[in-house]
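Notes from the 1:1 (GR / supervisor)

We went over the backlog. Supervisor wanted to see one worked example end to end before approving the batch request, so GR pasted a single chain during the call. The sequence is below; no edits were made to it. Supervisor asked that the structure be written out right there so they could see what the output format looks like.
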Amino acid sequence: MLSNSRSSQPVVLRSHYLSPSSSQIPASHITPRSACPETPIPFIVKKCIALLQICASSKFKLKQIHAFSIRHGVAPINPDMGKHLIYSIVSLSAPMTYAHSIFAQIQNPNVFTWNTMIRGYAESENPEPAIELYNRMHVNATEPDTHTYPFLLKAVSKVVNVRVGEGIHSIVVRNGFESLVFVQNSLVHMYAACGHYENAYKLFELMPERDIIAWNTVINGFALNGKPIEALTLYKEMGLEGVEPDGFTVVSLLSACAELDALALGRRVHTYIVKVGLNENMHVNNALLDLYAKCGNIMEAQKVFGEMEERNVVSWTSLIVGLAVNGFGTEALEHFGEMEKQQFVPSEITYVGVLYACSHCGMVNEGFNYFKRMKEKYGIVPRMEHYGCMVDLLGRAGLVKEAYEYIQNMPLQPNAVVWRTLLGACTIHGHLALGEVARVQLLQLEPKHCGDYVLISNLYASEQRWSDVHNVRKTMLTQGVRKAPGHSLVELGNCVHEFVMGDRTHPQSEAIYAMLVEISKKLKLEGYVPHTSNVLADIEEEEKANALFYHSEKIAIAFMLINTPSGTPIRVVKNLRVCADCHLAIKLISKVFNREIVVRDRSRFHHFRDGACSCKDYW
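Structure output shown during the call:
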């Protein structure tokens, strides 16, 4: 009787068959629908939903449950089953096409299902459909709730469409949701991600309660939008209000320090990271690595990388790019080879670092080989940055005509940066004709860029065409274009000191200029002769030598020689390219005064030590 009783019961899929340790549903436990009595639909729905909750970590089991539900006629027509299926798909980051195919078959989906679809697209690599779905919600007369807007605003942040974001903001206010903390945080993030950090900060100021997410969002917004000082100021305010920073705060803070080249502050943050145990966080370590690399302390960056227990593509990329910009191109390429051996797939940014390394080390053939491998081995479609590196590679090597031909054959329309790279190469290598061609293109693309006027003026001056130099400068005046003055920054204690050419405004000016005289005497004993060809003006040689003597980086170095103990490294940040004369002088200063001197100019780092530079005189 017991056996007959059991055989009369309908066969259903037992939840333990889909336990996390199971790999599939045994075929013997599934009876075809045609071979068993009818099972009530609600019962099947409940069973499938329970199974979806148990097997929430397996895409394969998800599809098995979906297939089972279809065989029993409950999915995706049943809204409840469809809702849970879509939720499981989104939670597992399965393809949104799969979720959308189910969503399209649900009649009158509820607000939870709409929100889940919006969330899925917002968290995917294609966030735009989230905005389209939101518009369809209104067409379908489904009222958004408080959970709709955070996901929707996340999608807006990704597509960087502030106009759409502002429209959603007005709807949020109209519906009375603006007072909710998680909606406020999403709005702050949206404005910051779209580059409107002022609006983000205004919203933040109006928030009656600010959690750690709000603080992190606005600090990160300032850091990402080139406002590192504001980011650091907010961090101090955060501490005064008793809010403890977390890993996300630290990452934003390190980013701000890297932007300011504030190595001393970055080291204090590093100490805090170790103290609170965040040094095992991979994202924090990546930010630390990036900080040290951008501040020119490549040895410390390598140390952080070596101590990391877990690494990802970002870790490798940060080190490779850091080595490249610091003049260690060979080491950068060696690490790239090691990265490939460890089966990490390089990203587009990784290859920018690789090509940059080749460019700044004069490795022309190697650069073209890497460019070919990028396309053929990894299927990376070259972007403008990659083509720009190739133009720079040829231009720096003196192959100016080849660089121009390369631009002519590019599949992308060259932008101002590419033409400016060519103009810079023409200026360095004295190719006037192509320099004028590049200048014509730049006048069409960015007619107000002061750097282009300076480059073409310097090119004319190097050819002794002083009337053309005068015309260029006259045009700058009439067009209202102002040249950015060269300056050098050094950090001493908690203060950053700025110097410009011939600067006598510093309180220690008398001592600084006395040190410059001493430097000049010692360099002459080493055989130093000023590179007067770097002074592109129609003046006497003696005046040119005096002009070179007072360049801002030399004044900054003299200041640091006075105020730091013997043997202490000196770090200088300059906003323009280091001229050949200063490059030679600093090499000799590093030897005569036994100092390591790190100079960060507009495109790279120069590590001077014992009379030599890491760039090997190729920059």
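Supervisor's comment: The first strand starts at residue 487 and ends at 492.
Batch request approved.
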